């Protein structure tokens, strides 16, 4: 048996095509969804992500503004800018690209963004809404992962989902979204003992640790498991690889996501979804 590959780039394209039609309809009503991205410093990975966000915005018809600031920008200056954007009616989504320079506290910045414009889904109010099963802006990568599985009509109810990694951006929220879908969730992390036992019991295995081929060899993967690889790692030859050794895992799994062309394109697509949703909410259409 060889797994069916879930190509996030294909699903992302079809969702963006739908969004393009929706934005055209909104524009005809005089509503122009607006996203402002704030980039501090010149981290190459951040610049690459931002470029992808601008490209997606252009495609679906979202007005995208990029504000680039030097890494000498103070926390007070950044908070002042966020406050201005919170008040600006044409801005429906505010995204401050992480990571930030060390002298700026990420959590303070996240909490300064209005929950109604927090299209990253990181504000504690939106996290709280997600935890209690309320409608909100879900964090983009976890939301994208759920959409990928649903696109293949994979039933999540009653499945044992094992998540390796407990970051606030992916690990924790994807577990909560799976719990909201009635899955049984186990978190594994750097202090977990005998992790192999948990991997062996996983109907759904989500790996988000940022270490190339962290899951190496399909030995511990359960026959027929769904394997979602969130890691993007650049190896010595310059190519990208995931946290899972794809070739061995696909022999055991029923579904698997590749790296690249897997989870990554879905993250930006869900950002577009959240921005459009915000524009609709602010204008009383959702």
Largest sheet: 6 strands, parallel
At CATH level 2, the architecture of the largest domain is: 3-Layer(aba) Sandwich
Task: Report the total helices.
Answer: 10
**Overall form:** globular
Note poorly predicted spans.
Answer: none
Rounded to the nearest angstrom, the radius of gyration is 19 Å
> How many domains in all?
2
For this structure, what is the CATH class of the largest domain? Answer: Alpha Beta
Share of helix among residues?
40-55%
How do the strands line up in the largest sheet?
1-11-8-7-5-6
CATH fold group of the largest domain: Rossmann fold
Fraction in beta strands: 15-25%
The number of E-state strands comes to 11
Order of helices and strands: EHEHEHEHHHEHEHEEEEHEH
Distance between the termini: 44 Å
CATH superfamily of the largest domain, by name, is NAD(P)-binding Rossmann-like Domain
The gist of it:
This protein is α/β, with parallel strands linked by helices. 41% of the residues lie in helices and 15% in strands. The protein starts with a strand and ends with a helix.
Offer a few descriptive terms.
single chain, 286 residues, alpha/beta, Rossmann fold, 2 domains, 3-stranded parallel beta sheet, 10 helices, 11 strands, 41% helix, globular
């Amino acid at each position: 048996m060889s797994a069916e590959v879930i190509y996030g780039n294909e699903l992302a394209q079809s969702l963006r095509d739908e969004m393009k039609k929706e934005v055209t309809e909104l524009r005809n009503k005089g509503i122009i969804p607006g996203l402002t991205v704030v980039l501090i410093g010149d981290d190459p990975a951040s610049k690459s992500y931002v470029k992808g966000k601008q490209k997606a915005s252009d495609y679906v018809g979202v007005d995208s503004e990029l504000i680039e600031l030097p890494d000498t920008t103070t926390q007070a200056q950044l908070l002042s800018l966020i406050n201005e954007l919170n008040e600006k009616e044409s801005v429906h989504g505010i995204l401050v690209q992480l990571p930030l320079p060390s002298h700026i506290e990420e959590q303070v910045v996240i909490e300064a963004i209005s929950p109604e414009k927090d299209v990253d889904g990181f504000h504690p109010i939106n996290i709280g809404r997600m935890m209690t099963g309320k409608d909100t802006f879900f964090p983009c990568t976890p939301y994208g992962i759920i959409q990928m599985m649903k696109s293949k009509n994979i039933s999540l109810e009653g499945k044992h989902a094992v998540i390796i990694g407990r970051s606030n951006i992916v690990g924790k929220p994807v577990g909560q979204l799976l719990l909201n879908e009635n899955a049984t969730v186990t978190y594994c992390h750097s202090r977990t003992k005998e992790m192999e036992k948990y991997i062996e019991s996983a109907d759904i295995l989500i790996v988000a640790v940022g270490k190339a081929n962290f899951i190496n060899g399909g030995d511990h993967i359960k026959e027929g498991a769904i394997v979602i690889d969130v890691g993007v790692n650049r190896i010595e030859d310059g190519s990208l690889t995931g946290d899972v050794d794809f070739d061995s895992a696909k022999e055991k799994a029923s579904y698997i996501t590749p790296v690249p062309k897997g989870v990554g394109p879905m993250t930006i697509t869900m950002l577009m979804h959240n921005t459009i949703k915000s524009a609709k909410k602010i204008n009383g259409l959702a």
